[in-house]
Design brief:
This protein is an alpha/beta fold. The protein is 33% helix and 29% strand. Helix 1 runs parallel beside helix 2 (46-66).
Length: 97
C-alpha cells in the first residue's frame, strides 16, 4: 500500500481514523477535511484558526505515527479530480479505490 486518502469530516473521531491509517502502513497520505468554506486558508475567525490548527495536528500525528509523507487540504473531493489513491479511509468506512 502506498497512497492513501484520509477524509476527515467535521464530526469524525480523529484519533480513531489516525489509528486506522497507521494500521495500513501507507507511504503517502493526503488529508482532506471536507465541508469547509473556500476561504479557510485566510479566515482569521476562531473557526478558521481552529481548522488550520486541526489540519496541522492531523498531518503531524499521521506523519509521526506512520512515517509517511503527508499533505493536507480542506474543502471538497472536487479538488482531487485526477488524483489516484490506492485506498480511501473516511469516517468508519474503508474503501478500495
Amino acid at each position: 500500500m502506498s497512497d492513501l486518502l484520509a477524509i476527515f469530516g467535521p464530526l469524525d473521531s480523529d484519533s480513531e481514523l489516525i489509528s486506522e491509517i497507521s494500521r495500513l502502513h501507507p507511504r503517502r497520505v493526503t488529508v482532506l477535511i471536507e465541508d469547509v468554506e473556500a476561504t479557510w486558508a485566510y479566515d482569521e475567525s476562531p473557526a478558521g484558526v481552529q481548522l488550520r490548527n486541526r489540519l496541522a495536528a492531523l498531518m503531524a500525528a499521521i506523519e509521526r505515527d506512520t512515517g509517511a509523507a503527508v499533505t493536507g487540504l480542506a474543502g471538497s473531493r472536487e479538488q482531487l479530480v485526477g488524483w489516484r489513491f490506492d485506498r480511501e479511509v473516511g469516517g468508519q468506512r474503508l474503501i478500495a479505490a
